[in-house]
């Protein structure tokens, strides 16, 4: 039995250097393909987060306009101070009551104006954007303008 095991162990060989290099090259190719794809997914999720913040602002503005029917526009500072929203998300709270981000009351859907940084200096800008326009723009950081 001992001789049989020794004979079997002598025939066993480990990985050669060429096999090891082939595996490393294959892993490198997979990584080169995956890293840019993951970067795009992360950017898309950041853009979607800013758009979700904009939708939240529009919803809070709808509540504000329901309680203040004579108002024609409202900015983020008024919405936060009036407890219509808890957090501004990626949008900076303005210092004055007439600064952007701002929602203007309109019959075809309230219009949102403002911009927010989602990565470094890259921003998503909304110009007279309705809830429908934000939703239909998908992953794009450019919201169509009317």
TrEMBL record:
The chain crosses the membrane at residues 20-42. It is found in: Cell surface. Residues 91-111 are annotated as: Disordered. Keywords: Competence, Membrane, Methylation, Transmembrane, Transmembrane helix. The keyword Ribosomal protein does not apply. InterPro entries: Bac_GSPG_pilin, N_methyl_site, Pilin-like. Residues 91-103 have a biased composition (Basic and acidic residues). It comes from the Bacteria. It holds the Pfam family N_methyl. This is Type II secretion system protein.
């Amino acid at each position: 039995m001992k001789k049989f095991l020794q004979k079997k162990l002598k025939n066993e060989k480990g990985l050669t250097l060429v096999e090891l290099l082939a595996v490393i090259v294959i892993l490198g190719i997979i990584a080169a393909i995956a890293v840019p794809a993951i970067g795009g997914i992360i950017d898309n999720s950041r853009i979607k987060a800013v758009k979700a913040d904009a939708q939240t602002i529009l919803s809070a503005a709808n509540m504000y306009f329901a309680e203040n029917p004579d108002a024609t526009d409202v900015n983020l500072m008024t919405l936060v101070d009036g407890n219509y929203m808890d957090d501004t998300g990626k949008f900076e709270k303005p210092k004055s009551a007439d600064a952007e981000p701002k929602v203007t009351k309109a019959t075809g859907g309230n219009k949102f104006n403002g911009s927010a940084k989602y990565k470094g200096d890259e921003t998503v800008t909304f110009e007279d954007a309705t809830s429908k326009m934000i939703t239909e723009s998908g992953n794009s950081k450019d919201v169509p303008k009317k």
